[in-house]
Design brief:
By secondary structure, this protein is mostly beta strands. The chain has one domain. The protein has no helices and four strands. The chain has strands at about 10-15, 20-25, 50, 55-60. The protein has a two-stranded antiparallel ribbon. Strands 2-3 form a two-stranded antiparallel sheet. The radius of gyration is 12 Å and the shape is globular. It starts with 11 loop residues before the first strand and ends in a 19-residue tail after the last strand.
Length: about 80
C-alpha cells in the first residue's frame, strides 16, 4: 500500500455533531482536510468513516500517521 501524504504536522481542531457521520481523509491529498473530497480514487486509499458519539470538539490527525485514526495521537511530533 502506498504511503499517505502529510498535509500538516499538527492536529485539526474540529467541532462535531452527535450522530453525524464524518469521512476522514487517509491519503493526505484532499483539499478539504481533514475530511475526504474523493481525491484518493484509484490510489489504493479509501476514506475512514466514523460517527460522532457526542457533540464536542475533537482533534483529528493532520499528518495521517496516527495509530488512533482518525484522532491525533501526537505522531506528528516525531516526524
Amino acid at each position: 500500500m502506498p504511503q499517505p501524504e502529510c498535509p500538516q504536522k499538527a492536529p485539526c481542531k474540529v467541532d462535531v455533531e452527535e450522530g453525524k457521520t464524518y469521512y476522514w481523509c487517509t491519503c493526505g491529498k484532499s483539499a478539504k482536510q481533514p475530511f475526504c473530497d474523493g481525491t484518493h480514487r484509484g490510489s489504493g486509499f479509501k476514506s475512514l468513516s466514523w460517527t460522532a458519539q457526542k457533540s464536542k470538539t475533537v482533534y483529528l490527525c493532520g499528518c495521517k500517521a496516527t495509530k488512533k485514526a482518525p484522532f491525533c495521537d501526537g505522531t506528528h511530533s516525531r516526524l
